[in-house]
C-alpha cells in the first residue's frame, strides 16, 4: 500500500518505512533508477548514492534495530517529487514499501492598480511558482491579450508579471493565474462616483460578494491622489488605521471617513483578498 507524503519546497520531510526487525539489515531507498540512500554492513554507503541526493539524506540509525527504515530528505526541491521505493532485507525477511512524495511550493499572487494622469493600468503577479504560470485576462466577458509581461527565475521557481491597460472604466477586468495544482483569480471594477461636502462624514462601501464567507479575509484601503498612493486602513483579523480619520467597518469592510476636506478627494481602492481570490474596487470621492 502506497503512503502519501507532502513536503514543503526547501524544507525537510520524512519518508516512512517499517519492517520486521532482523539481523544484518540492508536498506535501499530508490527513485526510478536512482539510489537515494544505501545502508548495509551496519553503515551508510555514500558511494552507492546518486549525486542528486548527496548530503541530503539521513536514516535514523538508532531506530533501525527496532524496524524503522524511514528516510529524512532535506532541502526539498521540485524534482524530488515522485514515487520512492524502500527495500529492506534481513537474514529473516524482505520488505518493500512505496511512498509518493508531493512537493508544495508556497506561491503567492497579487493584482496591482496604477493610475497616472490619464492612464490606468493593472498588473497581475504570480510569485515563486512551479512550473511557470500562465496568466489570462478577461474584459467584461471577452478574453483579451496582455500588453506586456516580465518573467524572472529564482533557481527552479518562476515569477511572472502580466500587464493590462484599462480602456473603459465601465468594464470589469479580471486576471487568472493557471497552474497544474492551483488557480487564482482577481477582479477589478470601478463603482459610481461619490460627492460630499467639507466637514461632513462619509461611508465608502466595498461590495465584495459572498464567496468570501467562512474564509480568512484581508482588506486594505488606499487612496490614490495625484498619482500618489497612501495607505489608509487595513483588516487582517484585527483592524488597523494609518490615518486618524479613517476606520474600517469590520462587518462589511466599508471605510468610514470623518471631517472631510478637499484634500480627501481622489480614488479610493478597496482590496479584498482570500487565498484564492482578490477583488479590487475603485471609487472616486469628490469633496
From TrEMBL:
Compartments, record wording: Cell membrane
Bilayer topology annotation: Single-pass type I membrane protein
Record-annotated Ig-like domain positions: 1-102, 180-286
Name by which UniProt lists this protein: HHLA2 protein
BP GO terms, sorted: cell surface receptor signaling pathway; cellular response to lipopolysaccharide; immune response; negative regulation of T cell proliferation; positive regulation of T cell proliferation; T cell costimulation
Family annotation (InterPro entries): Ig-like_dom (IPR007110), Ig-like_dom_sf (IPR036179), Ig-like_fold (IPR013783), Ig_sub (IPR003599), Ig_V-set (IPR013106), T-cell_Activation_Regulation (IPR051713)
Protein's organism: Serilophus lunatus (silver-breasted broadbill)
GO cellular component: external side of plasma membrane
Keyword terms of this UniProt record: Cell membrane, Disulfide bond, Glycoprotein, Immunoglobulin domain, Membrane, Receptor, Signal, Transmembrane, Transmembrane helix
